[in-house]
Design goal:
This is Acetyltransferase (GNAT) domain-containing protein. Keywords: Transferase. It comes from Chitinophaga terrae. It is built from 5 helices and 8 strands; from the N terminus they run E-H-H-E-E-E-H-E-H-E-E-E-H. It is of the alpha+beta class. The chain has one domain: Gcn5-related N-acetyltransferase (GNAT) (Aminopeptidase, 3-Layer(aba) Sandwich), CATH 3.40.630. The longest helix has 13 residues.
Length: 169
């Protein structure tokens, strides 16, 4: 059985998986990540299968929706339905969710988008650029996917909240 446990600190396993799962341009430095976690702005859920830690979710609770910033499952446990179970639990708990995905230019990106689509997520058709985590890096072209958003929450509103609260732009 898959369980999500709120955590106020990250175990070494989570740091290792975070660095392994996300390229440097798709994540902030670990000290900055831990600072945001300590303030309560950024939230962490540890994913466990029984007693074994198998992944994590870093997310933000914004005014109109929850933003899943980083979600990773240990590569050795992928394909067993853990990711789907996690997202199903998040859908029930968070209701209105937004997340970023890479454009469908690689087989892995296409598979990831398909994973979210099978779970009922839709993609905003608008072009979206993630502000850089590091000063001097270029913005990163991504896609925004969402589930459960009311029609009055537009792409521009979502982008504005992300830029203001997550990326401090």
């Amino acid at each position: 059985m898959i369980h999500l446990y709120p955590a106020t600190t990250a175990r070494p396993y989570i740091r290792q998986l975070y660095i392994q799962a996300f390229p440097e341009n798709e994540r902030r430095g670990w000290p900055a990540q831990m600072e945001l976690l300590s303030t309560g702005k950024l939230k962490l859920l540890e994913v466990r299968k029984g007693e074994e830690a198998v992944g994590f979710v870093f997310y933000w609770q914004l005014s109109a929706f929850s933003f899943i910033e980083h979600f990773a499952i240990d590569p050795g446990t992928r394909g067993g339905g853990i990711g789907s179970a996690v997202m199903t639990q998040l859908d029930l708990a968070l209701k209105q969710i937004v997340l970023e995905v890479e454009p469908p230019l690689t087989e892995m990106a296409i598979r990831r988008i398909g994973f979210y689509e099978r779970l009922g997520y839709r993609t905003f058709p608008d072009t979206y650029y993630q502000p850089p985590y590091k000063l001097g890096d270029p913005p990163l072209e991504l896609r925004l996917m969402y589930k459960g958003l009311p029609e009055e929450i537009s792409f521009e509103k979502v982008k504005e909240e992300l830029y203001s609260f997550v990326y401090q732009q």
